[in-house]
Amino acid sequence: MYTSDIQAVSSAASNKAELCNKHPDKFIVRSVMAGFYIVVATLLSNVTAAVLYPTAPAAGKILSSLLFSIAIILIVFIGGELFTGNNMTMTIGLLDHSCSIKGLLKVWIVSYIGNFAGAFILSSIAVASGASRQILTEYFESFIYAKLSIPPSELLLRGIMCNFLVCLAVWTGTRMKSESGKLIVMFLVIMSFVISGFEHCIANMSTFTIAYLLVDGISLSLILKSMFFVTIGNIIGGALLLAVPLKYISGDK
Fold first, then answer.
1. Is the model's pTM score more than 0.90?
2. Per-residue pLDDT averaged across 148-173, rounded?
3. Into how many domains does the chain fold?
């Protein structure tokens, strides 16, 4: 059960580790590009929600949650190294002995740094452009303070649930045979984490960058605290909650 799929993911983990080790420049660029794609989705989602917030906030939340799914589509179909997806992929590779713990950690660290660079750069450019500044400022003011006041235990659990769903979208995408099937499943699964209010560390890199540049009084220490607990939660959700059981049930015996 799932044996061939596990082998495919394990092979992908080996390739990632090799690329990161032998061609770190290419790997970091792929990671930066994944950060760019997350910003595209963040802007599309938040501008849509901001436009509808004064008149139809509920509809805006549903539509913005659906539209954020474009992030995973861009990464899967165009290519990129997303830290949260690598949490599952590299863990399966480690359990399947196709990569080492050193390779796993290197891929995680480099993709995380690259994702942040991409998210920070493109988010800063978007804010500096002045496009949609007023409606985005008003919209971010409506939720960013509450987002930063979430207790650490809840941040951890929301991070776990988020990346369980993100990696589930990636996993189901590998099992779907048609491109349209992949699109539908990925859109629905990613939408479920956004509309539920779960926390994604890479998406938060973009969200917090935009908020910090637009909204007064944002605490950098609160941002760092949120990022820490959400990142740990994302690792647990992708690696322990999904990758480990998938590898366990894939055995022939």
1. yes
2. 95
3. 1
